[in-house]
């Protein structure tokens, strides 16, 4: 029910109410893997509302629980979400670290479509860094790094047969 309120009806207060109810039940059961997923979704609601502090608390909880349960997909997504927060705050180096960790776990989990999206995000970071580089040579290096990551996105999209992604990435 929480997902429907979150993603279909865009009713975040109602989604949070259901997510927290589910979280309480999962805590009683000790199901940390599903709890991690819920923490991520709760964090995403706060992220969409620009409540970065609450988003980070929940993404960190998701990451810790995913690491404890060795849930590689959960680790990948939580790192990706934390990277998004760092990017939004302009912390490019920290965002790059989190995104690179996410990509390595996406690849291990065979999630090439997700790796493509994250690799594109890395390319965007390098493109942003190029616009504030101290000289043209440094900017050119950042643009080349951006292109490398954009090309990697295309390769991942091809591997996952993501034609929609390919259409976006080639533009």
Describe the structure concisely:
The chain is built from nine helices and no strands. By secondary structure, it is mostly helical.
Based on secondary structure, the structural category is mainly alpha
Q: Please report the number of helical segments.
A: 9
Share of β-strand residues: under 5%
Shape: globular
Report the strand count.
0
N→C terminal distance: 37 Å
Mean residue pLDDT = 94
- Oligomer status: single chain
The SSE order reads HHHHHHHHH
Q: Provide the low-confidence segments as ranges.
A: none
Largest sheet: none
Q: Which bin fits the share of residues in helices?
A: over 70%
Rg:
17 Å
What's the topology here?
Elements: H1 2-8, H2 12-29, H3 32-48, H4 52-68, H5 72-88, H6 92-108, H7 112-131, H8 136-159, H9 163-170
Helix pairs in contact: 1-2, 2-3, 3-4, 3-5, 4-5, 5-6, 6-7, 7-8, 8-9
Notes on the structure:
By secondary structure, this protein is mainly α. Helix content is 85%, strand content 0%. It contains 9 helices and no strands. α3 (32-48) packs parallel to α5 (72-88). The mean pLDDT is 94.
Which short descriptors sum up this protein?
0% strand; mainly alpha; single chain; 171 residues
């Amino acid at each position: 029910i929480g997902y429907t309120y979150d993603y279909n009806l865009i009713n975040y207060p109602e989604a949070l109410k259901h997510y927290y109810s589910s979280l309480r039940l999962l805590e009683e059961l000790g199901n940390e893997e599903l709890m991690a997923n819920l923490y991520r979704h709760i964090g995403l609601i706060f992220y969409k509302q620009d409540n970065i502090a609450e988003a980070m608390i929940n993404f960190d909880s998701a990451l810790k629980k995913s690491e404890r349960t060795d849930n590689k997909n959960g680790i990948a997504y939580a790192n990706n979400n934390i990277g998004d927060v760092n990017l939004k705050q302009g912390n490019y180096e920290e965002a790059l670290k989190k995104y690179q960790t996410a990509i390595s776990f996406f690849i291990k989990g065979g999630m090439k479509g997700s790796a493509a999206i994250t690799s594109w995000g890395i390319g965007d970071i390098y493109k942003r860094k190029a616009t504030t580089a101290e000289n043209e040579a440094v900017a050119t290096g950042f643009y080349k790094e951006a292109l490398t990551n954009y090309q990697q996105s295309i390769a991942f999209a091809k591997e996952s047969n993501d034609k929609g992604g390919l259409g976006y990435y080639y533009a």
